[in-house]
Write a structure and sequence with these properties.
- Helix 4 links the parallel strand 3 and strand 4.
- With 214 residues, the chain is an alpha/beta fold.
- Helix content is 42%, strand content 20%.
- The protein has a single domain, classed as TIM Barrel (Alpha-Beta Barrel).
- The protein has an 8-stranded parallel beta sheet with strand order 7-6-5-4-3-2-1-8.
- The chain contains 10 helices and 8 strands.
- Bound molecules: pyridoxal-5'-phosphate.
């Protein structure tokens, strides 16, 4: 399954984040032996444990809801945080990154689904912040793109529209804020059930779990 998905993604040069949450280390190592190096987790404790147990050249991505008081546990090693859904969280990541003498790459998460439970920022709030002096003081975080999750539904048209909304938020931030920032280029969207639509709508990074490990 890994090879099939990788071939599909190669055409559009989309990055594969193998979502390994709840999977045992042996399953991750199988995929590691086949060359996969980027893995995504959604719980801090599990992420830290797997980081400690598994090869150090794995790039670990945090993709799930992140509480501010837990940032310190992943700050020493996390490669990319997809789920930055508040300014206060971004500030905490910056402060913990600084303590570790590193710069942590981040994606801003936006709410595109209709379900209430999905987290995310408001475009106008974050735009105002990104133009403020407070943002300029953040030296240890690097915003390289945005992330979103579509509604869990069979309605493909709705999913496509939600991905389009995310793409348009990306374009707006690129034009208005990050026009000269070359590494602001990632759109993390698409999971097992909707990654093909996501790629058609401009995803640069898909987060696939169940389909990959089944
Ligand atoms: C679990 C999870 C995924 C992967 O979901 P699958 O349907 O198993 O591919 C992607 N993104 C987030 C944020 C997740 O929590």
């Amino acid at each position: 399954m890994l090879d099939r998905i990788k071939n599909e993604l190669a055409i559009s040069q989309t990055t594969l984040v193998a979502v390994s949450k709840t999977r045992p280390n042996a399953d991750i190592m199988d995929m590691y032996q086949k060359g996969q190096r980027i893995f995504g987790e959604n719980r801090v404790q599990e992420l830290v444990q797997k980081y400690e147990d598994l090869p150090k050249d794995i790039a670990w991505h945090m993709i799930g809801h992140l509480q501010r008081n837990k940032v310190k546990f992943i700050a020493p090693f996390v490669d990319l945080i997809h789920s930055v859904e508040s300014i206060r969280l971004l500030e905490e990541i910056d402060s913990q990154a600084k303590k570790n003498n590193r710069v942590i790459n981040c994606l801003l998460q936006f709410k595109i689904a209709e379900e209430e439970a999905k987290f995310g920022m408001q475009v106008n709030d974050i735009k105002e912040f990104l133009q403020s002096d407070d943002y300029n003081t953040l030296q240890n975080t690097n915003i390289i793109g945005i992330m979103g999750m579509a509604t869990f539904t069979q309605d493909k048209k709705q999913v496509r529209n939600e991905f389009r909304t995310l793409q348009s938020i990306f374009n707006e931030l690129k034009e208005d804020i990050f026009h000269s920032k070359e590494d602001f280029k990632e759109i993390s969207m698409g999971m097992s059930g909707d990654y093909k639509i996501a790629i058609e709508e401009g995803s640069t990074m898909v987060r696939i779990g169940s389909l990959l490990f089944s």
